[in-house]
């Protein structure tokens, strides 16, 4: 029986052959040093520049960030301390934000928040998804980015999650053609 990982490995190999100039790798197969940080860091805005390839996702990402802030009523500082957003009309101001400067002004410091995945493998748990970060880089300069945490424990959780999803979708054996 093929696992989810084996099926996706075929797609990775196909992409490596069909697009030789685009690096395609399993992030969790990189060095242990790499596993201590972030596997993907994708700035949408960098300083005053709109990153051409990713800026088209800015408005959607900003709206997702604002929705999460409204639902959770907190974000994390760059040193992982909770920043409470439930007082002083901050949530209303956040919902009105149209730019990085607007959002930063309300929160008052560099911050990050995370999307989440409701787990099917671990009943009642939410797994951390993609992080959205906002960092001030100088007067009227910000980095607004999405990041994917890359730690061995995270990969183990998502491997179990994908295995469970695969089992639900394909309860009967799915064999590789020989």
From TrEMBL:
Gene Ontology BP annotations: negative regulation of DNA-templated transcription
Matches recorded under InterPro entries: SRFR1-like
Name by which UniProt lists this protein: Uncharacterized protein
Organism: Malus baccata (Siberian crab apple)
């Amino acid at each position: 029986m093929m696992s989810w990982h084996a099926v996706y490995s075929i797609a990775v190999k196909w992409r490596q052959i069909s697009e030789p100039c685009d690096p395609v790798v399993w992030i969790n197969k990189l060095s242990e040093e790499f596993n201590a940080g972030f596997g993907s860091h994708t700035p949408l805005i960098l300083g005053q520049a709109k990153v051409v390839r990713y800026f088209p996702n800015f408005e959607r990402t900003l709206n997702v960030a604002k929705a999460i802030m409204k639902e959770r009523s907190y974000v994390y500082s760059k040193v992982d301390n909770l920043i409470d957003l439930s007082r002083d009309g901050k949530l209303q101001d956040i919902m009105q934000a149209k730019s990085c400067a607007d959002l930063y002004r309300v929160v008052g410091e560099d911050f990050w928040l995370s999307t989440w995945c409701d787990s099917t493998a671990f009943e009642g748990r939410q797994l951390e998804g993609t992080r959205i970060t906002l960092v001030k880089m100088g007067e009227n300069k910000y980095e607004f980015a999405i990041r994917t945490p890359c730690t061995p424990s995270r990969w183990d959780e998502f491997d179990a999650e994908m295995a469970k999803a695969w089992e639900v979708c394909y309860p009967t054996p799915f064999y590789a053609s020989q």
